[in-house]
Amino acid sequence: MVLPLLFSIVPALIAGLLLRGRLSGIAQLQLKWMWLVLAGLMVQIVAMGYVGRSWSFAADHRPAIIIGTYLAVLAGLIRNFRVPGMAVVALGFALNFAAIVANGGQMPVTRDIIEASGQSWLIDGTQSGEPVWQSKDVLLPKEDTRLWVLTDIFITPPPVRRAAAIGDFVTYAGVGLLIVFAMKRAQADRPSAPVTASVTA
């Protein structure tokens, strides 16, 4: 989710500039509890196996850790609910969270989707019901999946092809709106040039 999200930021920045927004608006965002969001995402990286995969606690409690990180991130997002665009970001996370909770703490994905995304190496030797490392996924057939429509049934477009859920795309859209709104607000708050009056004798 992280790499496609980074690529979604670029079009948002371009759109903001085309709408005569200002990049300074992003720095002026007054976000609260973002430490909670960042902490949740960092711990999630551990649960996904990017680091600490050999840690028995992380491996044994992976579903619980993923659920806990989502709760932390959602709490931080909801705290900033009034920031334009943040409600859409929170909705995207909530959709993913619903699918994850319904399936025991991991996001279901089928073998076909993983192979179609060009990441078949992630599931070499992985059996149904086992985690797909470097993701929040668990390998499950469609018939064993709850809330299938909310799970990783899509593939992000190039240049970063990944299994993705509808909640991911909603999150990308929310981040884009957040950036554009912030840039436009800075443009609206920009003081107008002073008007000088000329007096002729």
Fraction of helical residues = 40-55%
Strand order, sheet with most strands:
1-2
Major sheet summary line: 2 strands, parallel
Number of strands: 4
N-to-C CA distance: 68 Å
Mean pLDDT across residues: 90
The string of secondary-structure elements, in order, is HHHHHHEHEEEH
Question: Strand-residue fraction?
Answer: under 5%
Number of helices: 8
Describe the structure.
The chain is mostly helical. It has one domain. Helices cover 53% and strands 5% of the residues. The chain is built from 8 helices and 4 strands. The chain has helices at 2-18, 24-27, 34-48, 56-60, 62-79, 86-102, 111-116, 166-189, and strands spanning 107-109, 137-139, 154-155, 163-164. A two-stranded parallel ribbon has the order 1-2. The protein has a two-stranded antiparallel sheet with strand order 3-4. The longest helix has 24 residues, at 166-189. The protein is globular. 34% of the residues are buried. Mean pLDDT is 90; it is low at 195-201.
Could you list some keywords that capture this structure?
two-stranded antiparallel sheet; single chain; 201 residues; mainly alpha
Itemize the secondary structure elements and their pairings.
Elements: H1 2-18, H2 24-27, H3 34-48, H4 56-60, H5 62-79, H6 86-102, E1 107-109, H7 111-116, E2 137-139, E3 154-155, E4 163-164, H8 166-189
Parallel strand pairs: 1-2
Antiparallel strand pairs: 3-4
